[in-house]
Amino acid sequence: MKQFGTIFRFECKNYLKNKIFVGVTVFLIALIAAVMFFPRILSLFESTKEPMPKDRPVMLISAGTENAAAVQEAFAAAFGEYQIVLSENGIGSLREKVESGEAECAFAIESLTSYRYYVKNLSMYDEKTYAADEVLRSLYRIDAMTKAGLSETKAGEILAMPIQHETETLGKDQFQNFFYTYIMIFALYMVILLYGQMVAMNVATEKSSRAMELLITSAKPTAMMFGKVFASCLAGLTQLICVFGSAILFFNCNKEYWGENPIINSIFNMPTDLLLYMILFFILGFFIYAFLYGAIGSTASKLEDINTSVMPITMLFIIAFFIVIFSMTSGNINSVVMRVCSYIPFTSPMAMFTRIAMSAVPAYEILLSVVILVASVVGVGVLSAKIYRVGVLLYGTTPKIGTLLKSIRNAK
Amino acid sequence: MKLELKNIKKSFGEKKVLTEVSLVAEGGKAFGLLGRNGAGKTTTIRILMDVFPADSGEILFDGKPLRDQHIGFGYLPEERGLYPKKKILDQLLYFAALKGMKQTESVKAIDYWLERLGMTEYRNKRLDTLSKGNQQKIQLITALAHNPQIVILDEPFSGLDPVNAMLLKEVVKEEIAKGKIVLFSSHQMNYIEEFCDSIAILNNGKAVLQGDLRDIKRHTSRDKLIIRSPEAGKIETAFAPFAEKQAEDELLLRLSSPEKKQQTMKELTEQFDIDEIRVFEPSLNDIFITYTNDSADPLQKN
Questions:
Q1: Does the beta carbon of A12 lie under 8 angstroms from any beta carbon of chain B?
Q2: Which residues are CB-neighbours of B11 under 8 A, at least 6 positions away?
């Protein structure tokens, strides 16, 4: 136990002295600060000058004479961010002006049921034709209704009749939860993968530098393994807390400047119990993978071998990540695959966490998943310590799993 | 202090690494553990240090099982290596702490040893800024700083320049004088001969010879003579095939039995012009080769 403490402190100090670790943490905090303070800084420059009407981009329209004024009015209402200019000249001049950049885009409206849209570069998110369709359809209907004898106001009222609806979410609001769940899952994924591989690297470095020869005679292998894994876990957790903590802090400093931004607000509305779940699943998920990474690191005798040796575990983890991400984006959180994955120890940290975040999961299911995970962590920990014990003394080619298991049995 | 290994056996899977190793090492004396590559020296050391258990056999310290007592070990492995990127003081403190030393004690001990080995100026340097020999001296500190009762040095002299080798000799002699058990493992026979009072030779996982070095030398059969004579050529033809030329005017003469010694000496001095006749005493090197190599046979086994 005393040795565990010594090793744990030594490894923690290594992380604190590691320039990359400190650098990345500081960089992430700075990045988050920059994003969070951005609207505040922007408002310093913007507050004095309201955007003038003339600053708005120009949208040219040409329309048949009889309803040109009505069309211009309707377009002005639909495209508030544009300056709508009625062109007197023909289609040729519309093309020229869009091409020269004088106007950003142009609508050549031949009738209320057909038009041609000119734009220089069609953006992926350009939805002006949908809006224009809507405007023209409504104009056409009013026109048709008035022709059939209804008054223009009456026709307008019929078309603009609002439907009242309310949504009452009994479980979880997936839209609201989506962003923060996504961010948390991604954070889990990054931290477990990064720090897990660091454990493997760490063990392999000690082995290849032959410091292991001395270590193995100075400390118990279990103390070495557990000291390393716990120190990495603490380092990862510290980084997570620093990043998330600073994000929450900076957001609260700048809350009023973010106003009603739906994504940002939904991210920072994350409930506290979810944060606690995240820490729980992070620690358990981290342990199970870090133990495996440590065991594998101990079997490699050269640093170059590490990347290929850890591939199976990394693949397993990436597959778990993609199952969760696909289920999230498809909106089918409680599919059979996800349910199964939320009990398998290697996938459950992410799968169960996602289900808790984005749907209502009964307490017993959570408890069962956590119990299975804890038991597996203990099992994998014991097994890894055994592999480690044998692995650190093996030099030469990376042993096959069969020979490794044999030597573990013999080592008992 | 007395360390005893009794009938230690160890196999890894099908491979029998140690078939039978027994040896006795005493405090205040240096013990040489010899053997060819792969003979089982490192395995014996690792079993002694409890890296893995023996399949059978026992290890006693002063007559009682070693594991029941808290005996400090200091170890300089043959494969040297510490943390290359870390400050020397930090890693020395780390290893001292792993051996159970308190911070204040260990700082004092480390400073003493840095001073003793002339390494004080490197105290706060990174290990990889040092030369190989100096890195080895730092590693020696990890074996000695916690004042262990048993010091195990695996090829301690390899890679050291003559001045550093001298320094290490002094340090080893100091440790022996403190009454510690010092275990040497080396292929450099001259060092073993210089330091070690007792030796054990391992061959194929078995201790084939073990005991006091002087006794071993005395007990090798005295049935060979070294003859220095200006008439070496004549003697060689006269005694063929039992005479063997060693140098320009030096011969090794094998006798059919040790009892013939006196008579042969007499004959030789009467018939030839002899400068010197003496009984051949094997060097440790000769003994080592005899017991570990079955094909070459410079002297018969007794």
A1: no
A2: B17, B18, B55
